[in-house]
Amino acid sequence: MRIDTWFTALAVGALLAAPAMAAQAQDKAEVALRAAMEKETVEGNLKAAIEEYKKLAQNTNKAVAARALVQLGECYEKQGNVDARKTYELVLSRFGDQTEAVGQARARLAKLGGDGAATQPATRLVWAGSKADGDSVSPDGRYLSYTDWDTGNLVLHDIVSDTDGVLTANGNMGPGPEAFADGSVFSRDGKQVAYAWYDDTTKRDEPWVADLNGDPHQRRLFDGDASPDDWSPDGKWIVVSAGDEHTDQVAILPAQGGTPRVLKSWPAGGRRILSASFSPDGKYIVYAGRMADGSHRGYILSADGKSEIALAPESFDTHDAKWSPDGSRIVWVSGEPATASRVLWAIRVANGKPVGEPDQLIANFGNSFLTGFARDGSLFYGASLPESDIYLAGLDPATGKLTSLPKRVNEHGLGSSNGRIAWLPDGKSLSFWSTREGRPALVVHTLATGEERELWEQPTGAGGPGYAGWFPDGSVMAWQRNAQSLVYRRLDSRTLEARATWTVPFVPSPGRTGISRDLMTMFIPQKDEAVPCEGRICTYVMLARDLQTGRDREICRFTAGAVGSLSRSISPDGRELAFTMDYQGHRSVMIAPTAGGTPREIYRDESGYRLGDTLDWTQDGSHLLAFYAEPGRGELWSFPVKGGPPEKSALQEGFQGLNIGLNTAVSPDGTQFAFVGGGRKPQVWVMPSPFPSAKTAAAR
Question: What is the pLDDT of residue 606?
Answer without folding.
Answer: 81
